[in-house]
Write a structure and sequence with these properties.
With about 110 residues, this protein is of the alpha+beta class. It is built from 4 helices and 3 strands.
């Protein structure tokens, strides 16, 4: 079986050529990475993680989960002059994703 993967507009297209012909899967990018590594992507800052959430997870949420509060937070994040606190970002990530904080420590030599 051969596999070809392409990304377009936050969607992963996976073509699998099997003995029974070609099969195509179309899945959101974030789900592709979750399946590939069996974990969510890792980020250096909370801002990077939150921006990834807004670009990759938020568009795929069902309409009933896109509450006015969540829309307001998204608007505030992208607006100049307004700020979304780290505490609020963490709260949103914890509610809509499998969010965890990892601290890596390495001894200096």
């Amino acid at each position: 079986m051969s596999i070809k993967v392409e990304e377009a507009n936050r969607i992963m297209f996976v073509w699998m050529l099997t003995t029974k012909g070609e099969q195509t899967l179309k899945i959101p990018t974030f789900m592709f990475y979750k399946l590939l590594e069996n974990k969510m992507p890792q980020f250096q800052t909370i801002e990077q993680a939150f921006e990834w959430f807004l670009e990759s997870v938020y568009p795929n949420l069902p309409t009933e989960k896109k509450t006015s509060t969540l829309r307001g937070i998204k608007h505030a994040y992208y607006s100049e002059g307004e700020k979304v606190s780290e505490k609020r970002m963490k709260r949103v990530l914890a509610e809509y994703c499998n969010y965890e904080v990892i601290h890596n420590v390495e001894e200096k030599l």
